[in-house]
Amino acid sequence: MPAPTLPSEQSAAALIAACGGRITRTRLAVLGILRDSAHSLSHDDIAAQLLALDVHHDRVTLYRTLDWLVEQGLAHRVSGPDRAWRFNSGRDNAGAHAHFHCDRCGHIVCLESIRPDESLALPAGYRPERAELVFHGTCPDCGRRRAEDA
Amino acid sequence: MPAPTLPSEQSAAALIAACGGRITRTRLAVLGILRDSAHSLSHDDIAAQLLALDVHHDRVTLYRTLDWLVEQGLAHRVSGPDRAWRFNSGRDNAGAHAHFHCDRCGHIVCLESIRPDESLALPAGYRPERAELVFHGTCPDCGRRRAEDA
DNA sequence: TCACTAATGCAACATTGTAGCATTTCAGCG
DNA sequence: CGCTGAAATGCTACAATGTTGCATTAGTGA
Ligand SMILES: [Mn+2]
Ligand SMILES: [Mn+2]
Ligand SMILES: [Zn+2]
Ligand SMILES: [Zn+2]
């Protein structure tokens, strides 16, 4: 019998097809790259990986591919410190989880387990609909590396 | 006797001088504009106000002036949704207070009374140093305007 | 008033992203 | 399979935001 397929087990091709989109080499490669990465990737990071994989593409196509993935809920976007977006696989539900930004290596990772506290009392009149929470500090990798250096 | 002067009562000129900087028309005007505004201002907003005040200036000078004010702790920066910085008067201590971003009018305001919860338990290995908290939703002005429309 | 140097203005450049439009390629169909 | 129409791509040009280098101007203290 076919085991029930968790979303995380679905192939990139199946995920793309399920959205009613065409399966193209750029979409396949980009979604694969995002799903394989432990941290958020910038447009530039992804372009570099595509180059390494010999997946020819145009700058604009990559922007459009990323937009499409976000629209479809196959990826989500986090604003980086350098006014460039970072991308992660998976849907975010508009800021449903917090993110961690390492000031040493610059990596941004999703903290799926932490959701911003929506119940905070704001001053009168403010109607919050969602909250973005971004921690800054040192990530586990950089902490370990620092300990080894010492 | 001279009443003790609160920082908020100091003139822009005195604040600038206290930092050891020269008092120039651009610095005076920009700091004044920031201190008079109830919400964050983009580079472009400030340029428009300078124009209205007939304070001639160069684009680059304004960028440098804003950088300097932030360096000196006379202003702080918040990243907007459109990858353009917004500026507020006053020191922020690296994310010491939360901000509210109105999705209707685009205004960003400081919520001085709300500080991100630093005590949240992060996954093992993460060393947070500060947290940024940004609420999105409808601001009091837009809520009121909407109620009047109905 | 003078001299020193911080601050400015200008031109050129960098980065990140968008818009329009002709061309290619995917997916469904006979 | 080979066609065909629409979706996706590639290219060029453009826009927004910010930075760098360097010559000139103008605050400041003497
Ligand atoms: Mn995330
Ligand atoms: Mn603030
Ligand atoms: Zn790190
Ligand atoms: Zn508003």
From TrEMBL, chains A, B:
The keyword DNA-binding applies. This is Transcriptional repressor. PANTHER family: FERRIC UPTAKE REGULATION PROTEIN, ZINC UPTAKE REGULATION PROTEIN. InterPro entries: FUR, Fur_C, WH-like_DNA-bd_sf, WH_DNA-bd_sf. Keywords: DNA-binding, Repressor, Transcription, Transcription regulation, Zinc. It holds the Pfam family FUR. It comes from Aromatoleum buckelii. It comes from the Bacteria. Belongs to the Fur family.
